[in-house]
Amino acid sequence: MRTWYFPVLAAVVLILQSCTGDRSETVKKNDLLPDRMVVFTESKLGHTGDTSADVPGKLAAYNESVIRKALAGELTLHEPILSHRGLLGTAPLSPESLHANLGMTTGVSPATVDSIIRAFISEITSGLFIEEWVMDKDRFQFRKQVIAYQPVRHIPVYIDNPVTSLPEPTGDTTLFLLFSLMMDKSEEPALMKNGMDGLVLLAENIRYGIDLYNRPYYEYLYTDENLVSERDVEGWASYNFIFYKYFDRELFLDIILEKVTSGDIKAYNANDPSESLSRKDIYASVADTIWTPVRDTLTGNIRMELEEVNFPTENINSIIFIEDWYYSKAGMGIVKIVKGIIPVLHNAVYDNGSNLAGTEKIPIFLVWFNND
């Protein structure tokens, strides 16, 4: 079980135009609905797929660098953003609030600051990103424009043992949003002009998933099916209500499946990216197909032609992104380069008594976007 705890937000200042409002000027085409698809995603920073073992250490070093720059007055942080309404504006985080969120008081010695940072930096194991999704189906491009990065500290919960009177871990954690690092709009012209020269590589081939619910989000709330628990609704899921309410998952999946089945985009084995998959491979693994015998008018031979393909898109309930992460040299804001995507099929698993026992998640295929 995870409990979210958020610092009290300061008064809201209307700065939507400065942080998100004029992004549409740089976006020529977006085939997702609505046009500006703002998404909150929690990425587990220690779970990086098949990347090297030093990636979590790199991410920890990045978080530490951001915190130290902010404490030194070299970087402006903001109050955490908890909902789409918060995109209307959030106040800068005062030095007193930053120290309080980090569990320290102002005026402490550098040695104390070092010990406090070292004590909790390993507990920052996820990050809450606020980003816009942009998709161009003709070019088969998918881009994420990060609006803000919010590190999440996972604090273990302890309870006193009645026998020993000593604290023991319960296995639960309290999740604490430390601050919001906004992507500085003033940096974008320089980044667009200089390209990768203005960025520092943070980590490569990071893999993480996001759920795609297969019916209106509100229908899942507090149901006996336990597809979205009450805990999740009160925690991470509630701030994505607008996304799940308006995101056209069928359109999104149809774009990908159409590109793959038409042969416009090559699909690969999700577990072995070096192995390409034929359309027959994909059909055999996931689709319901109807094949019809057809007699060749010249040779008289019988061949089987594909008459109908039915992809169970209602059961493709999550996707895995493969991304490279960079950060800007000036403002430390994170830039995501989306490289590929893996649709994941969710099949219900039943026990001998025909009771729902869980869900089997099957990666269907991997496709690479043309984002170079």
Helical residue percent band? 10-25%
Query: How many structural domains?
Result: 1
Q: Spans with pLDDT under 50 lasting ≥5 residues?
A: 1-27, 47-52, 222-229
The helix-and-strand class reads: alpha+beta
- The sequence of SSEs as H and E is EHEHHHEEEEHEHHHEEHEEEEEE
Report a brief summary of the structure.
22% of the residues lie in helices and 37% in strands. The chain is built from nine helices and 15 strands. The radius of gyration is 24 Å and the shape is globular.
Question: Can you tell me about this structure?
Answer:
By secondary structure, the chain is of the alpha+beta class. The protein has one domain. 22% of the residues lie in helices and 37% in strands. The protein is built from 9 helices and 15 strands. Strands 1, 2, 3, 4, 5 and 6 form a 6-stranded mixed sheet that branches. β12 and β13 form a beta hairpin. The longest helix is centred in the first third of the chain and has 17 residues. It is globular.
Summarize the SSE layout with pairings.
Layout: E1 2-5, H1 16-19, E2 37-44, H2 55-71, H3 95-101, H4 110-120, E3 124-136, E4 141-160, E5 167-177, E6 181-182, H5 188-194, E7 199-211, H6 230-237, H7 241-246, H8 249-261, E8 267-269, E9 272-277, H9 279-286, E10 288-295, E11 302-310, E12 316-328, E13 334-350, E14 356-363, E15 367-368
Parallel strand pairs: 1-5
Antiparallel strand pairs: 2-3, 3-4, 4-5, 4-6, 7-12, 8-9, 10-11, 12-13, 13-14, 13-15
